[in-house]
Amino acid sequence: MQDAHAFLQTLATVLGVAAITTVVFQRIRQPVVLGYIIAGLVVGPHLPLPLNADMSTVQTLSELGVILLMFAIGLELNIEKLVRVAPTAGVIAVIQVALMMCAGVAVGQAFGWTQIESIFAGAAIAISSTTIIAKVFDEMKIDPRLRELVYGVLIVEDILAILLLAVMTTVATGSGLDATTLLLTTGKLVGFLVVMVVAGLLIVPRLMRYVVRLGRPETTIVASIGICFVFAHACAAMHYSVALGAFVAGVLISESGEGHTVEHLIVPIRDMFAAIFFVSVGMLIEPALVLQNWVAVLVLSVVVIVGKVVGVGLGGIVTGCGLRTSAQAGLSLSQIGEFSFIIVGLGSTLGATRPFLFAVAVAVSAITTLTTPALIRRSEGAARFVEDHVPRRIGTFITLYSAWIERVRTAPASATTGARLRRLSVLLVLDAAFIVALLVGGGLLHERIQHAAAASLGLSKGASQVLVFAAAALVVLPFVFGIVRLTRAVGLTVAGDTKIGRPVALVVQLGLLVATAAASVTAVEPFVPPGVGVLLLVALAIIAIVSFWRNARQFELEVQAGGAVVLDVLKSKLAGEATARAAHGKDHAATSPPTPNDAPSLLLGLGAPRLLRIAPGSTAIGRTLGELDLRAKTGAAILAIVRDGKPSMMPGPKDQLEVGDILAAVGSEESLSSAEALFTALEGDAQPA
């Protein structure tokens, strides 16, 4: 009876204080997650307040919060959604997570943390908070294209976080990263997951479809949460994270086609236990540890904000999202949250990290959570500033490259092209996997190999090290060349092996190289000497930036050379318009469709331009192209502005529009139709020319 009374008292204290903080934070328009963390500080043991809750009880309840959070994330995922977001959000997430992992490791090493602690720090700052972003986006009017991109990145990041949890478990229990033990531990984990997923696919989807057909919500809730806890318990029994089991259960139920039904029903339960989870996080914060490590907290906070903007921005540009949208997405994702707590909590539970790391991670999350609403509100202005100040050559290249990617993405691919891209992608993954396996094996066994080489050949320690590294390079080199060759083949398949398509193909190649190298470096970082992976990634980034700049120059020259084609098309269309006006009147000319053979091989394969006229009284008059933001809103790019019969090629974001201007827009049919609809909707701002 006494235990029941103590449990009730703890629950009342936690939920009562959490209720007050959530109301306060809703009123001051701040993420309620931060309020829950502060509630945890209030009821925790580290502040001299008379509201202490029993730590063990809250920790037990918080486990339910973790399980339900991960279960809900799994419910939102399915194979179809993953395939849809993989070409864009997948690449962005891989680049961003890898960059942040390397940055976190570098910061940890700089502060003298152990290699394992540095790896956990990198993993903690790599994953953005789905909970925080969802709550902030719900309170703001966010552009649908930006919302879709950000949520796509979050989906892939959640999957990567699950993989990180599995890898972190393996690394932290690898007995000093001994090769044999690590191999056995990894094999055991993979085998367990395969058995769990295969068995689950045979039972769970059929069972959930049957349960939902009964039409009883309470039966659906009990059955779905029961399945969730069964899988979580299976993982706990095998000494793995309960989060992994809950996530797998959610994905299996999602494959039944009833994921949205279950998700809608469990939302209130999930939110209550998630609140307790965040309160438990606040209870674990030791203000003294935060103060002792305040420099690390500030440095990691800056790294999170700047690193995510750079990582997401780079990935967004490579995948054709455009400069402005990429910058806005980076600012929106500049925080860490629930996964960070789970990851560092795992490290603490396994004894791989010291208590200070949890306090540092929570403090960084609190700071970045506070800055998130302000960053999202100001993201459009900041992105416009970046777009206005980027070198014009680079801005033009990014804009037309994005329009190119948009057209390729929406164009129906031939069976031959699709099969070739799938084959190249499989070979690329295999080559990267071989390199990772060789580097991990070499990193774990290099000391033994060096001793064996020194003993058998009579070499000194330095000479044996050089010999081992040279041998490793010779073994890895063919696979590196294979990756370079395969990424080039993918780029040429997408862009075409033409004089003007090669710069675009090279950018695709560089993007794939950066993503592949970043993922590989992240995978091998725990097993190679500290700093090696970071140095390799920095070197590749420098090479990519230099190559990008040189290609932008080459691209500009090719576009200028092809400008004669554009001018001929524009003159022909304008002459046709004048004739039509004289013969049939203005209305006929304004609605005459462009002929399909205007420019069958115009420039980059972007197709014939769609001409839009700025009519008198248009609100676009006096505004710049940057203010109109046509690329981010529709996916189309402005190739030229015709003013007084004189075309101006490749206008920049600062170019201002005047009455009578004709904009030559290029891109996919869908993006051009969206651009035309956008102009037409603004009270006759523009008409098709």
Q: Which terms would index this structure?
A:
single chain, 689 residues, mainly alpha, 5-stranded antiparallel sheet, 27 helices, 76% helix
Descriptive overview:
The chain is mainly alpha-helical and 689 residues long. Helix content is 76%, strand content 3%. It contains 27 helices and 5 strands. It has helices spanning 2-27, 32-43, 55-75, 79-110, 115-126, 130-139, 144-172, 179-213, 217-237, 242-254, 259-283, 287-292, 294-318, 323-332, 338-349, 356-377, 379-389, 392-410, 415-457, 461-495, 501-524, 532-561, 563-584, 586-591, 625-628, 630-634, 669-681, and strands at 610-614, 637-643, 646-649, 662-666, 686-688. The chain has a 5-stranded antiparallel sheet with strand order 3-2-4-1-5, sandwiched between helices. Helix 4 (79-110) crosses helix 5, helix 7 (144-172) crosses helix 14 (323-332) and helix 9 crosses helix 10. It is globular.
